[in-house]
Write a structure and sequence with these properties.
The protein is of the alpha/beta class. The chain is built from 16 helices and 17 strands.
Length: about 350
């Protein structure tokens, strides 16, 4: 079979769960399956080493005996990027490293599933975007996308043009019920008429979409400032309040199921966030407590407010790391995604020889 590269239009589209779900479906069908993530971007530090946890889960689920550096040849850290800018990372050498490890994993396997990064531009600094890698190994590219509004189609068309002949199609994931009719009735036919195959529309399943505010607070070690406000609501993404109140309100109204992060001293941003129905939680950094009036309004609207002692920049990084690491590293989640792919995606097209 042609190898498959799974990439996405943005972060937190369920790329790991989908990649491993496809791999497990192929394995269940009797095929020998390999996995690789050429550029590690979701990084954690463990035993003195910085690495991406996604290949660790793949190794467990697919019974792979490869070493971590073989599954993940490049650790795409900020330091790596700085070294590349200084000319200390050579694209030709990096390309050879990826190809050598890929061929080692692909040897005598029916299918290779290659997990890409959160954006098509990642890796461009060393000429190793997901599109570059797909071309190098002769893979077809599956583009993962969410769908919250019609404007999201622009990103898909742009991505398809960038990927070119290797583009297999777009797979919509975690689509809310409110958008299913428009997506299937209007958007999918529009894309098909533009030569973009729609490989499936996977509906939003709450337990796979993110985590509750309570779980987020526990993972962050945050103090919950609001009383008698439920923390059972699910959060799927993070948005940052770092602009004027007017600009913030426009941004917040386009966001769904989000936690908004800003400094505790930015009361005007918090007030704007409370006016947007898609903001389900507010996280304040810097240890600054908001005024009683702001907290009272949050409690009136049923929006939990969390407080972190770390500065706002660190709070953003921590919250994004926690949310993005969420349920996708759970084997049960990957199994559930496999079921969703069987029910709502054209898996035969992905696995055809």
């Amino acid at each position: 079979m042609d190898p498959i590269v799974v990439t996405s239009t943005e972060a937190a589209t369920g790329k790991t769960a989908v990649s491993l779900g496809i791999a497990q479906l192929a394995k269940a069908a009797g095929h020998s399956v390999g996995y690789m993530k050429p550029k590690g971007t979701r990084l954690q530090s463990a035993t003195g080493k910085t690495r991406d946890e996604d290949p660790m889960l793949a190794r467990e689920l697919l019974d792979l005996d490869a070493e971590m550096h073989e599954l993940e040849p490049i650790v795409y850290t900020p330091t790596f990027i700085e070294e590349a800018i200084r000319g200390r990372e050579q694209p030709a050498e990096l390309r050879e490293r990826i190809l050598e490890n890929y061929e080692k994993q692909a040897d005598e396997r029916d299918l290779m599933v290659v997990e890409g990064t959160d954006r098509l531009s990642t890796g461009g600094i060393v000429d190793l975007t997901d599109s570059d890698i797909a071309e190098m190994i002769g893979a077809k590219v599956v583009l993962l996308s969410r769908y919250d509004e019609a404007g999201d189609v622009d990103e898909i068309i742009s991505a398809a043009e960038q990927i070119g002949d290797d583009f297999a199609g777009v797979l919509f994931n975690a689509v809310p019920d409110s958008q299913l009719d428009q997506l299937t009735t209007d958007v999918a036919p529009f894309l098909e008429n533009r030569g973009i195959d729609v490989l499936g529309v996977i509906p939003r399943v709450q337990e796979l979409a993110g985590m509750t505010v309570g779980e987020l607070a526990d993972r962050l070690g945050a103090e919950v400032l609001t009383t008698d406000v439920s923390t059972d609501v699910f959060i799927e993404r993070i948005t940052v309040g770092a602009m004027s109140a007017e600009g913030a309100l426009t941004q917040f109204r386009r966001t769904q199921n989000a936690a908004m992060i800003t400094g505790g001293d930015r009361s005007e941003i918090v007030t704007a966030a409370l006016q947007a129905s898609g903001i389900k939680c507010i996280i304040l950094g810097g240890g600054f407590r908001p005024t009683g009036a702001v907290l009272g309004e949050a409690e009136k609207r049923g929006v939990p407010v969390l407080l972190l002692q770390s500065d706002t920049r660190m709070a953003i990084d921590r919250a994004e790391d926690v949310l993005q690491s969420g349920p996708t590293r759970d084997p049960e989640t990957v199994e559930r995604m496999g079921q969703l792919l069987e029910d709502h995606a054209d898996v035969d097209v992905l696995l055809e020889e």
